[in-house]
Design goal:
The complex is a heterodimer of chains A (about 375) and B (about 230). Chain A contains 15 helices and 12 strands. Chain A is an alpha+beta fold and about 375 residues long. In chain A, the strands form 2 sheets. In chain A, strands 1, 3, 4, 5, 6, 7, 8, 9, 11 and 12 form a 10-stranded mixed sheet that branches. Chain A is elongated. Classes of the chains: A alpha+beta (about 375), B alpha/beta (about 230). The interface between A and B is medium-sized, with 22 and 25 residues. The complex binds adenosine-5'-triphosphate (ATP) and magnesium ion (MG).
Chain lengths: ~375, ~230
């Protein structure tokens, strides 16, 4: 412990170099934290999908709508307990940077097929009876300070025009992994408006969601549904919600895998940045280490000094990086809506980042320690940098 | 006076790959307790090599080095480290102070290996710096000191543990004439007043003349003591 002062003084011997190293590690740890946060959010989004829900969409692409008339036929399929349907509403709130997901949902069935979006009975009947109302997630309400009675104005694109929706209520996510950032508006209201303006697009739904009975076989139910519409102009594809979500996020999924991979590449980069600094320092101090050994300092002392310095730098960089992660993750929060979950720094991410930083701190000291230990005192004293 | 340092038939051969380079061949040398010995000789004659072996930071290829009755050529690395910390004070040509530590902290370094308390360490450091005449420079960093002052701090570091032997490799080699003179006066005082046995390597005849005994190394051989009397 008596050499602690020497460790600290050694660390800040080259202030600029140390500062740049800490900054480099900090930025890398921040990037690591951001990537891990997104990857974790994605995984929990996929995992939070329910096993007893099937999604039916157009066989070619979920962008193509399905006729509302399919509803009654699908209800006849054995195993189907309940069906709801919805459309992606799109549009822009304020501007592109304020992204959140907006769906037109059937007010009578949506919340019973999706019980994880919790709303009160009174709120639900208000939503059912008042056409131009909407329900927003608690996370969304918090972000934009939406309150019941507020009017949200959306600039439409899929459904052109300026749309105004009054907040009828705020839903609470049942689980931590449940999406809290979405807005649901009344499908019937949307359909009435479309009948006026674009009659050809009336009575179309984006996709159906079926809730199946406890004993039902999801694969069999899916095949039976799709068989109903085989060889029709709009064939369907039914799959589990999880498969659907993964498909919906197929492009995002590739990015997510890249992020997953990148996050570990970044740990390697942190390692190189620190190892480079440590190796330079150790080389410059060849003579000093030899002198310390001559005076009687043991290998253990040198190991402690070099490990100490390496860990100090990596930990300072790690702390900086973790502090930077929070604001950066927040500024990316809108991206989370795509993932159907809230983007927040999870403790697993903090633990992984801290572990990475400690491992890197130790690993980066290995070469310098080896060098200091293997240099003969007599050679070290002769050494001229 | 007894022989504090006994060097018996010491050979040193450096091996690199398959090439053998004999540096010292059959050296025999006795250094009495309280002696101030100067080793002279041309560059490459093996002075530093011999000095390093006496100090226990290098080992002979064959032969014995006995210091104060202990054969240090047989000791393990860790035992040697311990032995050095209490028996040897090092003075180098380029001072080799730690640049990020103050004069005080540099002198304190060897004491960190002892069981001394902080206040005991303070006493020792202050008295060592007092001996070299730098009590007023304790808080200075090496780069704020002149070369001569740096060497004095290095000498304070060498004597702070009160070792029996001081080992000095060209202690004035990097200093101007006046500073060199001061350092040599200090070394003489350490020898007479503080009874340190000193083995010093130097190129410079004037510096060597401050010692009490002079020996010459020539191509790995120690010339007989009679030879240099002439
Ligand atoms: N680690 C080593 N490996 C191989 N040869 C070495 C090594 N160290 C020293 N030598 C060789 O040993 C010989 C003696 O070196 P040494 O440093 O003892 O000489 P010196 O008398 O101190 O010289 P100088 O006056 O220049 O300091 C030289 O030829 C040198 O090249
Ligand atoms: Mg030499």
């Amino acid at each position: 412990m008596k050499v602690l002062k020497l460790i600290i003084k050694n660390t800040f011997r080259h202030k600029l170099r140390t500062f740049l190293t800490i900054l480099g590690i900090g930025v890398a740890v921040m990037a690591f934290g951001l990537l891990r946060t997104v990857v974790t959010a994605f995984d929990s989004g996929v995992q939070s999908s329910s096993a007893d829900r099937l999604v039916t969409r157009d066989a070619v692409t979920f962008i193509n709508p399905l006729p509302l008339s399919y509803l009654n036929q699908m209800k006849q399929v054995p195993g189907v307990k309940q069906i709801t349907y919805m459309n992606w509403f799109g549009g822009t709130y304020i501007d592109q940077s304020h992204f959140f997901a907006r769906y037109a949902v059937d007010p009578n069935t949506f919340f019973s097929v999706y019980p994880e979006y919790e709303i009160g009975r009174k709120t639900l009947s208000e939503f059912e009876s008042q056409p131009n109302t909407c329900i927003v997630g608690s996370g969304l309400a918090q972000r934009y300070n939406f309150k019941v009675g507020d009017v949200i104005t959306i600039d439409g694109d899929i459904y052109p025009g300026t749309w105004e929706f009054q907040v009828a209520g705020i839903y609470k996510p049942e689980f931590k992994s449940t999406d809290a950032m979405s807005m649901f508006l009344n499908w019937n209201y949307l359909n009435e408006e479309v009948k006026q303006t674009f009659p050809a697009r009336a009575d179309e739904v984006g996709w159906y969601v079926e809730r199946i009975g406890a004993g039902a076989n999801p694969g069999e139910v899916s095949r039976n549904i799709d068989a109903l519409f085989a060889n029709s102009p709009a064939e369907t594809k039914t799959e589990s919600e999880r498969q659907f979500q993964q498909g919906f996020l197929a492009s995002a999924g590739a990015i997510i895998s890249a992020m997953d991979y990148m996050s570990f590449v970044i740990v390697g980069i942190i390692m190189l940045v620190l190892a480079n600094t440590m190796i330079m320092s150790a080389r410059e101090r060849t003579r000093e280490y030899a002198v310390l050994k001559a005076i009687g300092f043991s290998g253990r002392h040198l190991i402690g000094m070099i490990f100490g310095e390496s860990l100090l730098v990596s930990l300072l960089g790690g702390v900086l990086g973790i502090f930077l992660t929070y604001p950066v993750v927040n500024s990316f929060a809108s991206f989370a809506s795509f993932l159907g979950t809230q983007l927040s720094v999870q403790s697993i991410t903090l633990i992984t980042a801290s572990a990475a930083v400690v491992i890197v701190g130790i690993a980066a000291a290995v070469f310098p320690i080896q060098r200091a230990m293997n240099t003969r005192i007599a050679d070290g004293i002769r050494f001229v940098g | 006076m007894f022989d504090l340092i006994e060097i018996k038939d010491v050979e040193k051969v450096y091996r690199r790959d398959s090439i053998e380079a004999p540096v010292l061949s059959g050296i025999n040398l006795m250094v009495k307790d309280g002696e101030f010995l100067a080793l002279m000789g041309p560059s490459g004659s093996g002075k530093t090599t011999l000095l390093n072996m006496i100090a226990g930071i290098d080992k002979p290829t064959s032969g014995q080095i006995v210091v104060g009755g202990t054969d240090i050529s047989k000791m393990s690395e860790s035992a040697l480290a311990k032995w050095r910390s209490s028996n040897i004070g090092f003075i180098f040509q380029f001072y080799n102070l730690i640049p990020v530590l103050t004069a005080y902290e540099n002198v304190e370094l060897p004491l960190l290996l002892t069981k001394l308390s902080k206040s005991e360490r303070k006493q020792h450091v202050e008295s060592a710096l007092n001996i070299v005449g730098l009590s007023d420079r304790m808080k200075y960093y090496p780069k704020q000191l002149s070369g001569g002052q740096e060497q004095k701090v290095a000498i304070a570091r060498a004597i702070v543990t009160d070792p029996v032997i001081l080992i000095a490799d060209e202690p004035t080699g990097d200093l101007d004439k006046n500073s060199a003179e001061e350092i040599m006066t200090l070394m003489q005082r350490l020898n007479t007043e503080f009874k340190k046995t000193i083995v010093m390597v130097t190129h410079d005849a004037h510096t060597a003349s401050k010692a009490r005994v002079l020996r010459r190394l020539e191509k790995g051989d120690l010339l007989p003591a009679e030879a240099e009397a002439a």
